[in-house]
Structure formats: structure tokens, C-alpha cells
Predict the structure.
Amino acid sequence: MKFTVSRQAILEAFQVVGLVISPRAIRPILTNVHLLATNDMLTVMGTDLEMSIRFHVPMEEVEEAGEAVVPATRVASILKECASETVSFEAEIGGKVRLRSGKSSFQLLSENPEEYPSIPQFNGENAFGLDRDKFVTLIKKTHFAVAKEKSRFAFNGAKLDITGNQARMIATDGKRLVMKVEEIDNTDDVDAGHIVPSRALTVFEKVLGDEDDVVRIALEDNEIMLKTTRAEISSRLVEGSFPNYKAVIPESCTINLEFPREDLIRAFRQAALLTSQETRSVKLRVADGKAELSAQALDAGEAKIELDAPGYDGDELQIAFNPDFMVEGLKVMQAEAVKIGFSRANQPAKITGDDGFVYVVMPVTTRNG
């Protein structure tokens, strides 16, 4: 194996493939990537046995086709520190690989390619196409609400529902829930409802380039596969029962407030500055067409931020929220104005504004109610 390739292009490949490689893998060979050089293409492959990726990189020059298995993190670090436009790789006698960049040369220990796990190839038999921009939007608008705790099982992914001419993605961590709906051209008559792992969503977003108008997706009982111009990814699906999201979203709210989105983000951020980890809550008080966000911490002080709340002339009402949850949801929206609806201070709030977007947040229970 001997080839020359764009340093930036192969660095990107190592960075993306590195997302599926664990530095603490139970099998040492899984900390490596598998390089396969053909006449006009380099394929960089990696796996942790739950998720696999093939990333394709166009070649500058191929002197000899072949393959090698090299350490993922170390090679990525070398490529990042080098400055040349191109780099060359050459397999040497004794199971070593030579990497050259300008006047720099690195000799790397390599593993036997035959011992590297096989990487699944995309199965297009049951695949369907989905508009790339809409798929990216589904991920960007919902991924933030996926549970971070590994013990939440079904909450550790976002549910992809495809029914009729609608595709929706839903994510929740038990304290909030977000749903984004996109109208699609479902010519393949797909009917799906699978939970996609959070890590897979991260990698999907990284490989969806502007060169793809349509992304190909194949869904099996326990696996999702995605194919773009430059990559093929396979991942196990999350097992378990996803909560009934339709029952969580309030159908109607007796109290509906409207705020400029950017003003509301700024107000929650300001109030959050005077909270602590123990009192991570911001109170929203509305009365007489005015709204006030307030927060206090014994070791910091108190904050009060006023906002206009036109159209509200009911009794004084107070409800508390985790400011981080509010800001994260508001940031992925694009509408100039957003609506916050709820019925009581101890019931979830429903935030809307963008087409096909709903964000539901549970209130925080404060010491004084």
C-alpha cells in the first residue's frame, strides 16, 4: 500500500471515524482504523461493534493498492499537527506504516488487517430516500433533548417516525420533550418508528454534506444504515419502549404568552447567572401585561429581568423553569416570536413558534412552591 492524499481530507475522515472508536475498547484492535486503498479511492473504516462507518476520501495519487490498520488517535494527532497540503502513507516490511508530511516522517506500528472486524456494507434492498436538508433539520431541532444518562435506555436516542407524508423526530430525557415534523415525499411508502442512538445522530450530522440532496436510509429490526456520497454508517438501534409522546404534549393551554425569542433567551441567560447548582431554577411571574424573570442564590444574590407580556390580564401567576432547558430549546428555533402556553404552575409548558415544532418543558418545584 502506497498513496498520497490531501491532508485536510484524510484528517476530516479520521475525525469523523474517530467518533465511533472508543479509546478504551475491550479489544485493542478496535482503537485502530482500517485503511483500504484502491485505484482512485481511500476508504477509512472504524467500529466499536455497535456502530460502524466507511468514510471515502478521493486520492491524489495511488502507487500501490492495499490496506493497513493504524492507531486512530495517534494518526489523527499527527495529521492535525502537520502543515503540508498532502501526506503520503506507505506500508513497510515488518508490519509498519510510514507517514510523510513535508520534511516530517513518522513510522507507525500497525495491526493485521485480517484481524480487524468486517464493516457492514450498505444494504439498499429495503432503503428509502429522505431529503437531506429535512433530515438534518429533524436532528438539529431535537438532538439536544436526548437523555445524557446512559441508564435511561429508550431515552438515549431520538425516535424517528415516518407515516404517510410526514417524518417526525422526537426526543426526551423525562423532564422535557421536543418534536419536529417535516413534510416529505414518501414515494417509497415507508412506515417506520425506530429509536436512533444519540451517537449515531452526531455522526449522521457530520457526514451529511452539501453534495447530497437525498440521503439513503435502511431500517431493520435492530439496525439503521445511512448512505451519503462520502460515507456509509451502520448503527444498532436503541431497544426499549419510547414514551407515548402524544400524551405528553398538551392539546390546549388556558394561559398563552408571547415573547420575542431573542429577548427571552437573553433574559433566561441573565437570570441564570444568579442561580446555583442546588437552586437551578428561574421563576417566571406574569401579571397586568408584564412578565418578570427572577432568580436568587444564597451565595450569589438576586436577579430580576422584566419583559412585556401583552395580552395577559389575568391573575398573577408564577411558574419556575430550569433556565438551561429553556435556552437550549429556544436556541434551535428560528421564529422571531415564540409562545409559551400552560394551564397551571405545576403542569408542563408548551413552547411553539416554528412550523412543525413543539417543545414541552416540565416546571421546577421550588421550596416555596
About this structure: The chain has a mean pLDDT of 92. The first strand starts at residue 2 and ends at 6. The chain has three domains: 2-115, 128-245, 251-361.
